[in-house]
Amino acid sequence: MSGRLLEMGALRAAVFLDRDDTLIACNELPAPTPPAKDGDLVDPALARLLPGVAQGLARLASRGFALVVVSNQGVVARGGGTLAQVDAVNARVATLLAAEGVRIERFYYCPFHPKGTVDGLSREHPWRKPQPGMMAAAAAELELDLDASWLIGDAPRDVEAGIAARLRAERCLLVGSAGLENFARCANTILAG
After folding, report:
1. pLDDT tens per residue across span 87-101
2. Which candidate in 18, 21, 40, 154 is catalytic?
3. Which domains does the chain have, with CATH numbers?
4. Is 20 among the catalytic positions?
């Protein structure tokens, strides 16, 4: 039956994931070199999965959810990091998760910031959360069903972006600093939903 549904072009449900302080720890890192600011991660060697993330994502993937990262990376517009550094951190996150048997379908990120200093990136952009652009692009490119999808983030702008992308508000979940319990709770909520 599932093979037949795929042939008919059935859409998949996704779990959209913020990256920083949702999948990996950033706020507790040493202060970066300005103009980067606290919480900006541009060194892939510092990327560490938060407790419970790999296990929670493995459970979600085993139920058929596409795992898609959507992350603001205004550090690039502020001149504190480069696109190559963001890509390197994303690759490191993918490697850490792959070692646990988890595959991220795709990483989307927005390097724009309205208070940036880098020419061409110093502005608002439809991909910058709380705008829904990254999720809309993912839905179109990966054939995702937004009505059946969820979001896990760590900030109100993540929830706002999910709602703007037409995810139901109750499917937009926030994690906090408790790590394992929070991510496990979010995964349990999704699996029960």
Report:
1. 999 999 999 999 999
2. 18
3. 13-192 (3.40.50.1000)
4. yes
Rounded to whole angstroms, how far apart are CA atoms 19 and 40? 11
Looking at residues 96-122, what average pLDDT do you find? 97
Separation of alpha carbons 40 and 33, rounded Å: 10
The 3 state secondary structure assigned to the chain is CHHHHHHCCCCECEEEECCECCCECCCCCCCCCCCCCCCCCCCHHHCCECCCHHHHHHHHHHCCCEEEEEEECCCCCCCCCCHHHHHHHHHHHHHHHHCCCCCCCEEEEECCCCCCCCCCCCCCCCCCCCCCHHHHHHHHHHCECHHHCEEEECCHHHHHHHHHCCCCHHHEEECCCCCHHHHHHHHHHHHHC
Q: How confident is the model at residue 9 (pLDDT cuts 50, 70, 90)?
A: low
21 is known as an active-site residue: no
Q: Does position 4 have pLDDT exceeding 50, yes or no?
A: no
